[in-house]
Amino acid sequence: MSLTLYYHPLASFCHKVLIALYENGTEFERRIIDLADAADSAELQALWPIGKFPILRDHAQQSDLPESSIIIEYLDRRYPGTHRLVPDDWEIALEVRLWDRFFDHYVQVPMQRIVSDRLHATNGDLTRERSTLETAYGMLERRMASRIWVASPDFSMADCAAAPALFYARTVLPFPDDYGHLNAYFDRLVQRPSFQRVIDEAKPWFSFYPFAQAIEQRFRQAPDNA
Predict the structure, then answer these.
(1) CATH number at residue 114
(2) Is residue 1 over pLDDT 90?
């Protein structure tokens, strides 16, 4: 098999790439990396000295791709499926890249800092992180008032980024009840078969997540075919 994904089933940035792979039924091998394991960490750092996942190894091209957005763009060009995640139309593609960055920087990053604070019991001042999430939620509520998907008429890389970012963010700071457009968008994301598959695969690992108690019961139930 040409592709190997180095990842962890609980990691949100890995979820983003998995969604893209599942959207187009792209075949790949899995290599789960436990960062607490010295051998696993060394293996990952040999591919990408920064030591973060996901990383996609393309054996046919003898190349290793880090960073979730780069991996998705690479798959979209080198291993295209029936569903393009970055449109050919330049203006729409620019919107997709903008909102992809939005979710990574202004939802994922503050969310992960809050999670890290809980994980390491540092009890830091998280006012800025919560404020950033509140601002992001407000922007999304306004944007989704007239849209189905966040950046393109069709499901795109930006929605791949949105799904895990919002899934975990709402466990550290729930969406306001009156944000109907944001809540409806999230419901569309979690009903996407590709993301449902990602969540089903993550369920055995949820107990390791510091905010596991905040994950809704509908996401913690075992799959029907389990």
Answers:
(1) 1.20.1050.10
(2) no
Burial of 79 (0-12, 13-18, 19+ CB in 10 A): middle
Q: How many domains does the chain have?
A: 1
- Pick the closest to residue 155 from 61, 92, 107 (CA basis): 92
Q: One-letter amino acid identity for 17?
A: V
- Domain hosting residue 169, numbered range: 90-201
Query: pLDDT per residue over 157-196, tens digit each?
Result: 999 999 999 999 999 999 999 999 999 999 999 999 999 9
pTM above 0.90, yes or no: yes
Query: What does the DSSP 8-state code read for residue 211?
Result: T
| Pairing outcome for strands 3-7 and 29-32 | parallel
* Cα–Cα dist 33/43, whole Å: 9
